[in-house]
From TrEMBL, chains A, B, C, D:
UniProt: Mg(2+) binding residues: E103
Family as reported in the entry's similarity comment: Belongs to the phosphofructokinase type A (PFKA) family. Mixed-substrate PFK group III subfamily.
Site (Important for catalytic activity and substrate specificity): D104
InterPro entries listed in its UniProt record: ATP_PFK, ATP_PFK_prok-type, Phosphofructokinase_CS, Phosphofructokinase_dom, Phosphofructokinase_III, PKF_sf
Protein name (record): Pyrophosphate--fructose 6-phosphate 1-phosphotransferase
Keyword presence, Kinase: yes
Binding site for diphosphate: G10
Subcellular location: Cytoplasm
Organism (species): Streptomyces polychromogenes
Amino acid sequence: MKVGVLTGGGDCPGLNAVIRGVVRKGVQEYGYGFVGFKDGWRGPVEGDTVPLDIPAVRGILPRGGTILGSSRTNPFKTENGVRAIKDNLAKAEVDALIAIGGEDTLGVAARLYEEYGIPCVGVPKTIDNDLSATDYTFGFDTAVGIATEAIDRLHTTAESHMRVLVVEVMGRHAGWIALHSGLAGGANVILIPEQRFDVDQVCAWVASRFKASYAPIVVVAEGAMPKDGDLVLKDAVSRDSFGHVRLSGVGEWLAKEIEARTGKEARTTVLGHIQRGGTPSAFDRWLATRFGLHAIDAVRDGDFGKMVALKGTDIVRVPIADATARLKTVDPALYEEAGVFFG
Amino acid sequence: MKVGVLTGGGDCPGLNAVIRGVVRKGVQEYGYGFVGFKDGWRGPVEGDTVPLDIPAVRGILPRGGTILGSSRTNPFKTENGVRAIKDNLAKAEVDALIAIGGEDTLGVAARLYEEYGIPCVGVPKTIDNDLSATDYTFGFDTAVGIATEAIDRLHTTAESHMRVLVVEVMGRHAGWIALHSGLAGGANVILIPEQRFDVDQVCAWVASRFKASYAPIVVVAEGAMPKDGDLVLKDAVSRDSFGHVRLSGVGEWLAKEIEARTGKEARTTVLGHIQRGGTPSAFDRWLATRFGLHAIDAVRDGDFGKMVALKGTDIVRVPIADATARLKTVDPALYEEAGVFFG
Amino acid sequence: MKVGVLTGGGDCPGLNAVIRGVVRKGVQEYGYGFVGFKDGWRGPVEGDTVPLDIPAVRGILPRGGTILGSSRTNPFKTENGVRAIKDNLAKAEVDALIAIGGEDTLGVAARLYEEYGIPCVGVPKTIDNDLSATDYTFGFDTAVGIATEAIDRLHTTAESHMRVLVVEVMGRHAGWIALHSGLAGGANVILIPEQRFDVDQVCAWVASRFKASYAPIVVVAEGAMPKDGDLVLKDAVSRDSFGHVRLSGVGEWLAKEIEARTGKEARTTVLGHIQRGGTPSAFDRWLATRFGLHAIDAVRDGDFGKMVALKGTDIVRVPIADATARLKTVDPALYEEAGVFFG
Amino acid sequence: MKVGVLTGGGDCPGLNAVIRGVVRKGVQEYGYGFVGFKDGWRGPVEGDTVPLDIPAVRGILPRGGTILGSSRTNPFKTENGVRAIKDNLAKAEVDALIAIGGEDTLGVAARLYEEYGIPCVGVPKTIDNDLSATDYTFGFDTAVGIATEAIDRLHTTAESHMRVLVVEVMGRHAGWIALHSGLAGGANVILIPEQRFDVDQVCAWVASRFKASYAPIVVVAEGAMPKDGDLVLKDAVSRDSFGHVRLSGVGEWLAKEIEARTGKEARTTVLGHIQRGGTPSAFDRWLATRFGLHAIDAVRDGDFGKMVALKGTDIVRVPIADATARLKTVDPALYEEAGVFFG
């Protein structure tokens, strides 16, 4: 038995832990051989492989990024992409494929299995935690931890000066990182893509915070949008690849609006890629390692077209399509629950 | 409506986050008043209270420990303890009590409700994660993170020298911290209280590790015991308050045994109380805050005798007795799953 | 003997450690009384004071910000400012004043002593490390540590994707944070305010890095400026209060230039205020504590008009004017030394 | 020109940063070739080498430990050790040797140069900071940071319970880590090897602390000894390789003494090897990198028998013998300065 492994999409702390879990158990318990495909689906499309064995995965558990590299190559948008994959899997004598990735990467795996019978197992990955069918994905806890630590640090400045501090965190379509880090960090306003915000309401929270104690901290997901955003922000908005309207630099924009409307100074921190880099948290290593161990079990069981998922404290298997069918966004009730801390 | 709050047992990162969540929601959404009882059940027994309002909980979210203090006072082992509690609750005009604590603290709350009709709501707390009826308790994630970071640091020494490194972590009766941190830290041996270990097997893993790459790291829960421990370790064992045999300083003892049997140098790190101190992780703040928000909802609903619990990503309510009925120990299958990384 | 204490200018990790050192030694060894003035020079100008004794400084050592608050009030730019200070010091029966702050705050202290005989001792503070006459100021080590950790995290993304990562760090007039964190973080390009940069040279380094291994990380101080900046950047530049030309958002601007000229994707992280917040590093606590202990010794010795300073491992006293006479900028030779790591 | 590099003695965060600095500058600016000797002086004695070039040092800056391995081999205690070194250097065509290590490693380098004319340059390394002739050595700041973070965590437990917490830190012959981390962490008692401690005095501080606020934290260097230690502690003491009396497990011993004499519970944390492992602090990376850059400059200048050293903010060169002549211990005045925080 020979198993191919690839990682696709944006990088995410825990990818290497998955790879290590897959290979350690596959080699030691089942005697499988492995081959790594480089840069997501580009690897099988172009036949670009690297050796993957126990020495190759030694020491990678605590390291961010992915030893296999990543890309956004989509074989269904590449001429003869699927045929090339079939040829290259045959050439590499690969009997099954483990695809670690987000919506796009897993979507390809699901179609390759359903339409072409290529035996794929999926491992869900998204820093944004917006994949359905799993309680959490690895990388999310690390990102929330980094954002929370940043908010912690801003509190001391907020205590010493009279400035509004705006923190822009990741989250284009879902506000999980903003919600969790905002709650954990004691933010005074949390703005998420799921609910358009009212700048006047934000300013009212800011004002009430100044009255109650010290300067407010506003956490805003990069995909959050003001009401009437399309009209108000002629130049600042753009459309992303999904055709959604996007506000470029919402943190900076919001800080300026707050300054203009409240007369208070406002400063912005844009955390950017530091949220998805570096060593995974202990939780993410645990989750990613277990995902790896269970993904190779699915291969052994011939249970293809499935992906591993977290349910409570258990790792289960679900059809890949369950994860990619729709985005997992923040439940309005959950957002409202957090509202007690606003202002 | 006036609500009393107390924290009992060992301290645990997240206690203050619970208190803050309870008070913020209780005051702002329900208009309740609050009173803090000092040092666990000692507070209501002796009528020792502190004011508890929004200013009192400001800034405590990221702080370890508990602003209410803690103790192991048990009113059922105190003369007229229950009567004193009833009197003091009446005197303080307290209509309901939120008890945040582990097995002992919650056990008292359950009996006070069932036997004396005192309206109690519980919030589960244990650094060791060994309470049933909840997926996780706050504090555990922080402890695992601290232990994992320590193991990370030991790897570089292990790479540079030929020494066995033993890390003793918390866990008297359950090996959750050892298992999670050992897996997340890439330990080569993990020993837990649930399964007596064979020193020769440990030495075999140590030897195989030396052969494969660099020096091994052994994570041992403080409550782990060797096979035949009672006979072998005349002086080192003691009996704890439950009558269980306990090996004092198992980490140090094991290091000496490994040195004697393998001829390799071994060094011990005893993490001790640093695992339960300091700022809570983002996950623990999130969990503890939500526990607080839901505990005050249980009070509002008059749903007494219950405690809040985590099920997947939801906070639910379960009878307190479900949590205290039996210790949640590591499932043998889960321990075996980790075994692929041993040696 | 009664001593007033104030903190002025931007906040900086370690301010509280200085205050604690001053008060602990002053009370316990010399039997002095203390009074805190609120918000820098605003306190003595307006007679706004807070009690300052041993209980007031308990637990503040590890906390960022300042318990005394801060502002940029300058009594020499306030009508009757100096007279108000004299009156308020007399009213509070203050015999000496310890002023903790940067160029502006210390400059006021020096003039008050020299021109009006008000007995002042200074403690140097600047996150940017740009004060002369002291090897380091507290806060700087913390800021460098935070920036370095951010750069560390970006490396894993750089390894997994083919993107240029730009990190904008603090430093308007001096590049110390950029230089230290860039060197400690293994950045591939470091840009500082002391030397105008050539965008084509930056792009050449970026290209050579891509060839050698993985994607480059560019650290840029917020005050760094391209050659011909004034002409090229009509809209992006502004003049700060010193009349210096300033490029607003140099990180974002540079990322766009790199994208345009090299065709590679570029992403920006703006660390902002998180560099000056949160708990001080161990080094900064040690330095700030010792500054406090030595500042109160200067008061005891009647050695006014002086500030404490670090020389090697010793705390010495120097005339305040030595620190404020000129900005301590990065020596060209030191910057050149770092150049071996560029590209 | 071909340069050999070796690392000797205990591992220390920053060793890899030195190696990288040496190689990057040597190759890029001077066109030198390099060879790595394995495991300290064992490498040149046995002719055990590894290739050392720019790819070999890529990515090692943030990693603890040493890619060259380490040992305590002393060629002067090995039969024909010096002759073997001369032969192996000739065979490897090595023109100069950079030895990175502590007292022992540097002492060998000094003798090889002085007695046998082997062209050596030294780089000082000691986690304990006890080498003369340099303000600091790399690794020390990292160790102090780790110990300080541990002490920070213990404060929250100390606030919540009535327990004495003892932290044993590194430092056999010098108390630098204990002093710096104790001061930075706000410890209530600091005990160092340079001054024998009086257990009754320790208990008095403990008692006064309990009275003033919350439970005390005692930081004790592993080499600290009680007065009359030799007589009192028959079994617990041993003699180290220098013939000095050593108390094994002083932290554990002291906790028991405090319990016995004060009746208060006491708990011990032994940090052990986690103080010398893991990623170096930003300060240590900066210092180690600059040591590397200046060491290769010394080779270029033919300035042998010297080692690089930190003086203030400058890197200078001093005779190796200046560093190894005597241990740099804590000045009594400095220890007394810290005494204001005891009790």
